[in-house]
Amino acid sequence: MNQSDTPVENVVIVGSGPAGWTAAIYAARAALNPLVFPGRATGKDLMPGGQLMLTTEVENYPGFPDGVMGPDMMQTFFQQAMRFGTRVVSDDGVQGQDDASGGLYMPYQNVKKVDLSQRPFHIVGDGGYECRAHALVVATGAKANWLGLDNEQRLAQSGGGVSACAVCDGALPMFRDKELAVVGGGDSAVEEATYLTKFASKVYMIHRRDKLRASKIMADRALNNPKIEMVWNSVVVDVLGDDMIEAIRIRDTQDGNERDMAVGGLFLAIGHTPITGFLNGQVEADDKGYLVLKDTYRSTTSVEGVFAAGDVADSTYRQAVTAAGMGCKAAIDAERWLAEQGIA
Ligand code: NAP
Prior knowledge:
Layout: E1 8-14, H1 18-29, E2 35-37, E3 57-58, E4 68-69, H2 70-83, E5 87-90, E6 93-95, E7 111-115, E8 121-125, E9 130-138, E10 142-144, H3 150-157, E11 162-163, H4 166-169, E12 179-183, H5 187-196, E13 202-206, H6 216-223, E14 228-231, E15 234-240, E16 247-252, E17 258-262, E18 265-268, E19 272-274, E20 306-308, H7 320-340
Parallel strand pairs: 1-2, 1-9, 2-5, 9-20, 11-18, 12-13, 12-18, 13-14
Antiparallel strand pairs: 3-4, 5-6, 7-8, 8-9, 10-19, 15-16, 16-17
Helix pairs in contact: 1-2, 1-7, 5-6
The structure holds NADP nicotinamide-adenine-dinucleotide phosphate.
C-alpha cells in the first residue's frame, strides 16, 4: 500500500499490558480515538494482556482487596479501554467495542516494523495492517527471561509453583512455610530471595558461579540472611512435579554431577529483555535495551512524538501499578504534544 493511502491516527499504542490499556483509557477519554496493537497470542514477544496473562493471582494491585487473577485483571483493563472508544487491530482489521467481543483472546496484531524518520510515523502490523500515526506510545513491556525448560514452562503456565516474579506471586498461600529456590545472582535475585524469606521456611539461591553479580550491599543482605542458603556453581536442568513443583534437578557446573533438591516453589530472576525489536534502534535505549526517557518524570523519548510507558522503559520497578501510572503519563504527554502541534 502506498504510504499516503494509509489512515492517519492521532495516537497508536503498541502493547496491551497495564501501561498500554491505561494509555488507551486516558487517550480515549481525551477524545484522541486511540488505536492499539495488542500483540499476538502465539508470538513469543508481545502478547495480548502482557506478562500478567502468565501470572496467577495478583494481590498487590490496589482496588482488589481479595486479589484477582492476572488474566481477569487484564480483561477488565481491556473492557474499560474499549468502553471509551479505543480500537484494536486484529487480523480482521480495526475493531471497536462491539466487534472485539472475544476480549483479549482474539487474533490481534503485533507491530512488525515502524518508520519514525518522518511524521506521521508509518506503522506496519504483523498481520499486514498499515497505518500512520502522529504520536506513538510504546508500551510493549519487558519479558522475563526463563531457563527455557519444558517443565519450567508447563508449571509456570499452570500455576504449579514456578514464577518469574516473586514480588507478584511469592505471598501466595501455596508458598507459605515451604523451602523455595531462586535462580540468579543479580540484584533481582537477592531482592526476590530476601522478599521470599518473609513467607518461606528457607530460600535457596541457585547461582551458576561462585560470586554474586548483585551490588555489595544487596549481596551482603543475602549472604547474612539466615534463611537464605547459597547453592553456588549450579544450574537448574529440570523441574520435577506433575501439577505442582516437587523438586528441581540441579547440575554442578564444576564436576557435572546432578542431584534433585526438594522445593515447593521456583522463582527465576535471571534478568528481563525489553521488547523493542520492532523499533530497529530508532529510539534511544540503554545498554540493556530499555528505552531511555528524556525526562525521568515524563514519558518522552529520543524521538519527538514517541512516548514510552511501562516495563519497556523501566528496569527498576516493573510492577503492574507502576506500568499503569506510566501509561497514564504517556497518554497525557501525547495529548499535550498533539495539542501543541495543533493536531488534536
Ligand atoms: P542481572 O543483573 O542481569 O542479573 C541476572 C543474573 O541472572 C546474573 O547473576 C546472571 O548470572 C544470572 N543468569 C542470567 N542468565 C542465566 C541463565 N540462563 N541461567 C542461570 N543464571 C542466569 O539482572 P537483574 O538482577 O534483574 O537486574 C537488572 C538491573 O536492575 C540491574 O542493573 C540491577 O542492578 C537492577 N536492579 C536493582 C535493584 C535494586 O537496587 N534494588 C533490584 C533489582 C534490580 P551471571 O552473574 O553469571 O551473569
